[in-house]
Amino acid sequence: MSVPFIDLKRDIAAHRDEYLSIVARVFDSGTFTSGPEVKAFEEAFASYLGVKYAIAVSNGTHALYAAYLALGIGPGDEVIVPANTFIATAEAVMMTGAVPVFIDINEDTHLLDLTKLDRVVTPKTKAIAVVHLYGQMVDMDAIKAWADPKGIAVVEDTAQAHGARLDGRRLAGTIGHVGCYSFYPTKNLGALGEGGAVVTNDDAIASAVRSIRTHGAESVMYKHDRFGTNLRMEAIQGGILALRLLQLDTSTLRRHQIADRYRAGLAGLPISLPPAASDRHVFHLYVIATDRRDALKEHLAKLGIGSAIHYPIAIPDQAVFTSRNLAGTCPVATRDASRILSLPLFPDMTDAEVDEVIAGVKAFFS
C-alpha cells in the first residue's frame, strides 16, 4: 500500500458541496476581498481563542510582518528567532529592516532552548519570536517570566499550532503580546488558498494591524497615517476558514489518535519520538529523529510511503543569512537538520495507512 505524506483532496471530496456553496455565496455578494465573510471568520476565530481581536490578513508571513510593524520594530532593532523554523519567521523580521538574532534549539523538543536566552539578548533586542513548531507549545510561562521584566515583546508564531493549549485552556497565540497564524492549505486550520491572522488583546496593536493591512489607512479612505501595504484576506478564504474552524477540534482529536498509534507502534526502535499526545501538542507534523535519516527516507520512498524534512537547513545556515553575515552559531539546530524526518500525518489518514508506515519503519531497522 502506498501512503501519501498528505492528501488534501480527501477533505475536498468530503465537503465539496459545502465549499462550492461558499464560493457561490461570495460570487453572488459581489464582495471578493474582506467584507462580511472575512468579518464573520474574524469574530468566530477570536471567540474560539478567547481573545478580543483577530485580524485576518493575506498569509502567515504577512501576519508576522504586520505584528512586528505594529510593535514599532524597524531598523536598528533585533528580534530573537529560533534556528529551527520556516524561513518566514526570520524573513518577516528582515522585511521591517530589523535584524534576526538566532537562538539554538533543544535537541529533544526541537524548540528554542530557553536556557540560551541570556546568550543572545542585547540592548537592541525588542522582541522574541516564539515558534510553536510542529504543533507543540513552547513553555510560555518561562518565556513571559524572562521577557516581561526586560520589556521585550513576545510574538507567538502559531503557524503550526492551531488549537494547542497550555493548562487545558490558554491557547497558543493568545499568551504573548501578539499571536500570528498561517492558514496555508496544509495547516491544521487551512484555507483553500492563502490566509493568515494576527490575534491580540491589545487595543493599540489591533488598531495598528488593521491600518497596516490597508496601506496604513485608518477609518478614512485615502488618508494614510502610518506605513502599511495591502495585506487583506480574500472573501472566499474567510468563508472557507469559518467552516473549517468548526471542524478543528475534531481533526485535532484524529491527529492525537494517529500520533498515539505511531508512538505505540514505533516504541523500542533506535529513533527519538515526539511526546505523547496532549493538549500542548496538536501534531501538525510527526517528527522523528535518527542518524540514519536519509537512508530511512529512501527506504520509505521505495515502499511508496511519503515523508518530508522540516527543515533540511537550519535558518542560520541558509545562504540568505550567511551572505549578510547574519549567521549565528547554533550547532544543535545544524545537527538536527540532518536527523529529523516527518512521517505522514493528516486527519483523513486511515489506521491501515498508519500501520503501513509503522511496518515500513520497522522493516528498515530490522
CATH class of the largest domain: Alpha Beta
Computed CA radius of gyration, to the nearest angstrom: 21 Å
Mean pLDDT: 96
What is the general shape? globular
- Main β-sheet, in a few words? 7 strands, mixed
The strand line-up of the biggest sheet is: 1-9-8-5-4-2-3
Distance between the termini: 20 Å
Number of domains: 2
Low-confidence stretches: none
CATH topology name of the largest domain: Aspartate Aminotransferase, domain 2
Helix count from the secondary structure assignment? 13
The number of strands is 11
Q: Tell me the β content.
A: 5-15%
Helix proportion of residues, in percent? Answer: 25-40%
Q: What structural class do helix, strand and pairing data support?
A: alpha/beta
By CATH, the architecture of the largest domain is named: 3-Layer(aba) Sandwich
**CATH H-level name of the largest domain... which superfamily?**
Type I PLP-dependent aspartate aminotransferase-like (Major domain)
Summarize the structure.
The protein has 366 residues and is an alpha/beta fold. It has helices at 9-29, 35-49, 60-70, 88-95, 117-120, 140-147, 203-212, 235-245, 248-266, 293-302, 319-322, 331-336, 351-365, and strands at 53-57, 78-82, 99-103, 125-131, 153-157, 165-166, 170-171, 178-182, 196-200, 286-289, 340-343. α3 (60-70) crosses α4.
Topology diagram in text:
Elements: H1 9-29, H2 35-49, E1 53-57, H3 60-70, E2 78-82, H4 88-95, E3 99-103, H5 117-120, E4 125-131, H6 140-147, E5 153-157, E6 165-166, E7 170-171, E8 178-182, E9 196-200, H7 203-212, H8 235-245, H9 248-266, E10 286-289, H10 293-302, H11 319-322, H12 331-336, E11 340-343, H13 351-365
Parallel strand pairs: 2-3, 2-4, 4-5, 5-8
Antiparallel strand pairs: 1-9, 6-7, 8-9, 10-11
